[in-house]
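Re: weekly structure request thread

Next one in the queue (152 aa):
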Amino acid sequence: MSQKRERQQVVRELVGTRTVGSQEELRQLLAERGWEVTQSTLSRDMHDLRVARVPTPGGVRYTTADTSAAAENRATLASLVPQLFQRLDFVRELIVVKTVVAGAQPISEAIDSEGSPDVLGTIAGENTILIICRSDAARERVAKRLLTLARR
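Done, posted below.
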């Protein structure tokens, strides 16, 4: 196994089994395991592994979207929207959702993972999500659901 894969496996394990709230904390945990990495290397690994910061009742923590443990612990749309949502606007089949900083990726991932037949896909930036719906009627259903979840 390559060093990169081994290192990324350790990152995946640490994020999946511990509450890690910052890259520096994760870098220190890696160092304790014998992996001295730079911040830029760690950032690339986290991007490759689709590691995201998500809010939890105990505070913000990192999680991965592609491990079975993370899938079980993945924040649901219903838990993310009330914490991260700010507003939405729409035109035709498109919805633009504004979130708090770093809130777009977790919400977008939650929308995509639901597999709604109303949603063709999402594109997320740092605090903005573009949701492409199948029709105006689908857009109305998706927007109504998001607004309902935001009021919880």
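Residues 3-17 form the longest helix (15 residues). The chain is about 50% helix and 25% strand.
Next request, please.
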